[in-house]
Structure formats: C-alpha cells, structure tokens
Amino acid sequence: MKYAVMVLRSVEATAVVTVSYNSSGQLDSFLSSLDNEIRAGVRVVIADNASGDTAETQRIADAHGAQVLPLSDNLGYGGAVNRAVASLSASVDAVLICNPDVLVGEDALDTLRERLDADPTIGAVGPRILNEDGTLYPSARRIPSLRTGIGHALFVRVWPANPWTKAYRSENQVSARDVGWLSGACLLVRRSVFEELGGFDEGYFMYFEDVDLGYRVGRAGFRNRYEPAASVVHVGGLSTQAESRRMVRVHHASAYRFLANKYRGPLLAPVRAVLRAALAARAWLLTRRP
Fold it and tell me: Is residue 248 assigned to a domain?
C-alpha cells in the first residue's frame, strides 16, 4: 500500500494535532480514522483546553495510542494548537492540524504529505472537506478584502449568487490550486513556516485564525495549496453552521479584527470605524430574537 511506504519513510517527521474542549464524544471516531497512521508510528497529540472530561479523553487516547497534552486554561483553538506543536520533537517537520470532529480519509495524510514534500514553496496544504451529506464544507477561499467582504456580508442571505460571494467562495472549484487560506478544520502545515510565523495568532479565540494564518503564509512568500485528491469529512460541519448567538457575535468580532489588522494605518481609520459599525449591526440583525 502506498501510504505504508510513506509512513515508514517519514513517520518521525509527521504528526497530527487536535484540540479538545469537552470533545471526548468526538475523539473515538476521529482517532479511529487515524488508526492506520498511529499503528505505523505517526504521533497524535490532543491538546485539552481545561475540559471537564479530561479523564474520558485520556482513556480514549490511551486506547488508540494517542497523547493528551493537558492545558491549565482554555486557550482557544489557535493557542492550544500552538502549545501542541511546540511539544513535538524536533524531528517533526510537518503537522496535520485537525478538528476533533473530522474523519480523515484513507490515504489523505499520504497525499497531503507528498504534495508538501514535492514543492518547498508550499507552506500549507489542505484537503477537500466534506460535510456528512456530501456537500462541500467552506475552505480553500480567497483572502477577504473590504470589497468582497462587505459585499458578501451584505448580500449572501438575500442574493446568494451575488458576484462578491462568488469571488470569495471558491471551494466549489474541485481542482488543485493555490488559494488564499485553508480551513483550520484540517490542513497540513510545514512546521518551519508555522513556527517562523509564530503559529496561530492567539488574539483570535475562535474564528478567522485560519484566515489570518493563510494571509501571513502568503505574505511570507509561501503558498497555500488546495489538494482535493485528499478528502476528509467534517462531521460537525453542518451543525456548526447553525451557530448560537454568542458564536455569531464572536465570528463578527474576529472578522473585524482581521480586516482592521489588514487595513491598518491612520488614513484608514474612518474605513475601520464604518466597518466596525457595519459588522456590529449585521451581528445584531442575525442574533435578534424573532
């Protein structure tokens, strides 16, 4: 089997990192999808964000041969990933970052690793991510700009086929290509690039940490590559789209943080003020009770 050959050659150089916050109910399926890789020697680290179910997480990890990295505080997704990557041995040069509600497809890690190894200009490579119903999960998109971001935000619900949303959403193009950013639900990063950039920006507790990482990968002169020949299933993809009111507000706050950092400087202060007000208004409209 092709994958087994790859693992024997690069087992010491590849690791998998996931984050758990009371996510023990998802971990058995996630780790089961990686059983072949774990048996071959790929290290899997579960960063636990001060959960209440750490004992169950440890039991499941032990059953699959994974490692738990307990954290004393809830650092958010990016912060926990950063700690897990820092805990890996120096021999690891590529890290698959995954949500715990992802099922990694057969040969997916093999395919991603081969793509990363084939081109040193690639800083991160991501698979095709599917929802449980077979639809595509949002990934492999352009970096949002003021024009596309505002147009998408204003019209996506009332005019789904608007040109700004079409420009922003490109995951329906099922072809290998360079993209602006890859979903943090599942992507393989070159460790040297990840660490050169300081990992995920921990100022994003939730949402947009993957957009920000992709933006910084590109600015550093590396490429974000979409590789749909590798496929994973995001089991929680559909349910997370029906977000709570708090999550909608956090999402909009993170969107503002990203765009404000991208469009900084005193001359753009009026633009940022309008953007902040517009995003706050949109969050209020989406979260008001019927």
Answer: no
**Tokens representing 44?**
């899997």
Query: What CATH number corresponds to the domain at position 154?
Result: 3.90.550.60
**Token pair recorded at residue 13:** 């150089």
Mean pLDDT, residues 90-107 taken together: 96
pLDDT tens, position by position, 164-188? 556 556 656 678 999 999 999 999 9
Going by C-beta distance under 8 Å and a sequence separation of 6 or more, which residues neighbour residue 74?
A: 21, 49, 50
Tokens 């100022």 locate to 203
Q: Which residues contact 61 (CB under 8 A, 6 or more apart)?
A: 27, 31, 44, 46, 67, 68
Measured CA to CA in angstroms, residue 160 lies from 166, 169, 208, 248, 249 at distances of 8, 11, 22, 19, 21
Let me know if residue 247 belongs to a domain: no
Q: Which residues pair with 44 in a beta bridge?
A: 16
**Whether the Cβ atoms of residue 42 and residue 16 lie closer than 8 Å to each other:** yes
Q: How many domains does the chain have?
A: 1
pTM to 2 decimal places: 0.85
Q: Which domain covers residue 65, as residue numbers?
A: 2-242
